[in-house]
Every structure is written in structure tokens, then in C-alpha cells.
Amino acid sequence: MTHRTTPWLASLINAGALVFFSLMLVAGLAACEPTTPVSEAPPVEEPPPALSDFDAQVDAVLAQMTLAEKVGQMTQADLSGLEDPTDVATLFLGSVLSGGGSDPAAGNSLEAWTNQYDTLQTQALQTRLGIPILYGVDAVHGHNNVLGAVVFPHNIGLGATRNADLVEEIARITALEVRATGINWTFAPCVTVPRDVRWGRTYEGFAEDPGLVAELGAAAVRGYQNGGLDNPLGVLANAKHYLGDGGTAYGTGNFPNAPLDQGDTQVDEATLRSVHLSPYLPSLEAGVGTIMPSYSSWNGEKVSGSKYLLTDVLKDELGFEGFLVSDWNAIDQVYPDDYKTAIERSINAGMDMGMVTNQYRAFIENLTALVEEGRVPMERIDDAVRRILRVKFAMGLMDSTRSHLADRSLQASFGSAEHRAVARDAVRQSLVLLKNEANTLPLSKTAARIHVGGKSADNIGNMAGGWTIQWQGESGEVTPGGTTILQAIRNAVSANTEVTMSEDGSGAAGADVGVLVIGETPYAEGFGDIREDTQMALAEEDVAAFNAMKAAGIPVVVVLVSGRPLIINDVLEQADAFVAAWLPGTEGDGVADVLFGDYGPTGKLSFTWPRSVDQLPFDYDAEDFDPLFEYNYGLTY
Ligand code: GLC
Predict the structure, then answer these.
(1) Domain that holds residue 527
(2) What is the pTM of this model?
(3) Burial 70-103 (b: 16+ CB within 10 A, else e)
(4) Is 72 part of any domain?
(5) Nearest ligand 1 atom, CA 295
(6) What pLDDT digit, counting tens, does each position of 382-412 carry?
(7) Which single residue of 14, 193, 332, 614 has CA 20 to 30 Å from 420?
(8) Which residue, among 366, 364, 290, has the nearest Cα to 323 in the 3D structure?
(9) Which residue's CA is minimally distant from atom 3 of ligand 1?
């Protein structure tokens, strides 16, 4: 089965064809639709206004703005690089972000984050025009920067649920927890289509299949923006990383130890459109307000400097009316020899806001000079600022009758049991059962003794993976409020059942069954790229723990906590049952629900599972295409 959309869709993607077929479809439907008397017709929900509907109001503000105020709006500083909160006001900054680990100086707590947001927003509101900032974070699986937030399964697990309504609900809850800190923008959903699971960002992708990515990405946009950009309970969404970030060729990575990340996607335009562009269309349709161009290249050209991809395709052909925010210092890579030229090329290509982190002063000085020298036309500056202000008007940020400080009433539901219950359900639905010999699963809650082992059995940090509190995540008790898999097993069994534990799998003899939780430790981006084939195999400590538990002569259930399929052949063959749990986040009870049969597994693989590293990247159409498990595989009971 191929997971590509055939090239003919690539031509259909052309907006002109889409309009034609849409009109045909509407005409067809109208012809066969039973006519409902108007009085009984259900209330028609008004679609949210188009961003360009705000242009009259935007242009009235634009006409008052100085060049300094315009360039300021196009500048996004990182909190950790902000020399002084007053820079937000004195430099008229349009946005601030907190990259992974960029916590408030006052520490990592709900209160500290909320106070930090209010401090910076207050600065912005004191400027001559009082244009509020957009504050952005990578809330990619919950408000994962903030201690105590609910951490949901990463996208690879959500892809296995095939449940768009669940993805929308998770995004809606995430938006509530983000807004509880005042923050109003998340750099999500990631609508990447990872085509080589050796990429360190595979787990940020929903699937290898563009169609599933398209469906779940749009669901996430609807959830984050919660019915429209003007909803103070929603946040501005950001589809990323445009375009082809998941299709780079092995060995073209931007850094020596990262063979894939930020590399070069070497495909023809039809493939670029059908595999990597098609997932953006439903997100555009859902009204996503911002898009983040990728660090990566297409056939040797940095996407963040490509006028064809940023302006001709995205803005002109597809009619995107929001704004483009660069990735973290990604503009630098457009022309590494000279920052001013890099800025010139990226802004003229269509980049609207620079995520320039700690070099915001240099960005402002260079872009101002480029305009004064005529190397960046004022029309381009005005177009970028118009797009940014459109979004701010649509979000109600330009309405001076509304408060733009944090709504602290939302803190009551931050990390709540209700939110955790949704995360637990997502964990249940994300697990994929790969093997179940002699009905080893479901386990009995009244067994005399269950022995639990493995490095990830009692480890929230491993369950959550990267982008959790720290950019790279970290093993251990990374954030409070969650439930490890060991704790979940203990929660599930009867009072008479003994649950013993050893990370190395020792001491299992005599137990009724063993549960071994193994896999990967946290990583993010290029740090997770597979550099050596051996890294795709199970870690030696995991194999040793499995052998120790197996030697006890008891049935062994393996639970794999990983950001991608790994090479598992030997252990799989000897295991009695094997469950792929991906990166489930903080709610380990969802794993126990499946292990004990309170929920029969329904998850289906959203990535083809390799038999060996030599098969990667998969050629889905090859005659000898012979993976260990195909896309959509998943047992139940
Ligand atoms: C990172 C990532 C991007 C993220 C941004 C801000 O490098 O590539 O996904 O949104 O920087 O943290």
C-alpha cells in the first residue's frame, strides 16, 4: 500500500482546479439535496471572518505607524534572550516566545509564567499605539513547558488513535491550559509527514500518510483556535514546518551529528505537493492564523528563503492571509555568510516575522537599514505588518475594551482531573497491540503477583519524551501530577495482588506474569536523529532486562515507550505480548486500562514498522517491500 497521494492530486491542489470542482460539487449537492423549508433549516453557524475582512481597520493603524513600529511588529524575541522587559516597549516588539526551557526568571510555576506574561503584555500596552504582543510557546502535547500541566501523548500516538475528535478536544484543553498563563499562541500543530523514522522529529508527526496528517492537523487547528481566533479560550495556532521538513534525504542534515534534521528534501514538485503540501490545505481551510517555514531545503534551496514556496504558492496560489513566522534563527541559514543579506532574502521571499530570539536588536537594525537602502521595499514591510495586524485584530487584541492580561480564572482547571481523564483516554486509544500469544493479555487484576521491570516503568520523563519542561525533555520525575505505568498497575490490581518492581528485570521468578517497560530516553529535533544503525535497536540494558525476566520462566509482556518504531525482532519473537505505547505523556493509567482489559486496544500503526534499518527510507511501491508490520496494523481483544 502506498502512502502517497498520486500525482494527479498534485495538479488538483492548484487552487483554480479546487474552486472549479468545489463549484461542481455544490451544484451537484444542491441538485440532489432535499429542500428544507427555511423555517426548519438549522441555524447556520456564521464562519469566522476572513483575515482580509480586517484590512480597513488594519490599514488605519498601518497609516499611523513609523518604520520603527513596523519593524518592531515583525520582530520576535525569546524570553531568555530579552535583555530587559522594557525592550518590548522601547523596540515596539510584536511578539515574544519561550523556546523549550526558556522559563521565567522567577522559576517554573503557573504563577511565575502568568506574571511573566502580564509583565511583558503591560509593556506592550504602554506603547504609543498600544499594540499587544503575541506570546508564543511550543505547547505541542499540552502546555508542556509548565510544571503541573497535563502532558498528552505526542502526535505519533495520536495518529494511532485515528480519532480527529479526540485530537480536537486535546488541542482545546491545551489551549485552556496555555491561556491560564495568559499566553496566546502555540507553535502547533506540526503537520509534518515523516518519511524516514530515523528522524529525531518522527514523533512530532501524526503519520507517514499525508491524508491522516491532513485530517488530524486540521482537527488540532480547530481545537487550538476553538471556534475562531477571537475566542479568549482559544490560542493562535501555527502549522509547521512548511514545507517538506519530514522528507529530507539521509545524510543531508544541517549538523554533523544530525543526518536528517534540517536537511534537503530532494523530490519533484508533484511529490512535494502531494506528500508534504496536501496536509496544509485542511489547516488553511480551518483558518490557521500562522505558518512556520522550515529550516530544511527543497532541492538545495532553503525554504525560509524561497519566494516561490513562501509567496507564489502559499500566499498567492493558496491565498493564505495570515503571517509566516520563521523558525528559531532560521533566517541566519538562508545566507550564512552575512546576516543582513540573509534577512533581505528571507523577508523579500515572504517571511513576515523573524523568530530572532536573542539577536532581535541586530535584526531590527539590519532590517531598518535594508528598507532605508531600498533593498527591502516598504510594500513588503507593509504586507508583513498587515498580515500580523490582521491576526491581532481577528484575535480581539486590538479591542481596547477587552483585557489582554491573563484570565486567572482559568487556573482552576489547569492540570485538573478532568483534563487528565481526557489524556488517559488518549493514551488508551493510542496503544497498538503488536503481539498477544495465548491471550497473555488482558492481565488479571487478581493475580497473586505481577513483576514490573524496565527503565521506563516508573519514569514520567521517559513516558513524556522531548518538549517536556526542557527542550530535550529529561528522564525521571520531570513534572508533578502524573501517574507512571508502575503506579497505574498498582492502582489497577486487587488489594491481594502483590506488585514487585526491578528496573533490571531481576527477581521475577515466582510471579504470575512480568510487565517490562523499555524503549527510548527523551530527545528533540536533530539530537534524536539516528546516526548509527545500532541506535535503532533496543538498548542493551533493555535486552538484558528482558532476558532476566524471561529467564524466570514467566509470561512477559513488553511495553515499548518510544518516539518511533525500533528494530525489535528478537525480543518480539520471545515476548508473549508486545504493546507499542509511543510517548504517552503523564497519564500512565491509560496503559493499565489496556493491559487489564478495561479498554480493548484499538490503536493502529500510523507508521510502517521496519524489519531492519536497511529498509529505510521505505520505498512503499518496491516489489520487495516487506516490513515487520504494515501501516494500519494493530490487534485487539
Ligand atoms: C525549534 C523548532 C520549532 C519550534 C521553535 C521554537 O527549533 O524547530 O518547531 O517551534 O524552535 O521553539
Answers:
(1) 417-615
(2) 0.93
(3) bbbbbbbbbbebbeeeebbbebbbbbbbbbbebb
(4) no
(5) 8
(6) 999 999 999 999 999 999 999 999 999 999 9
(7) 193
(8) 290
(9) 327
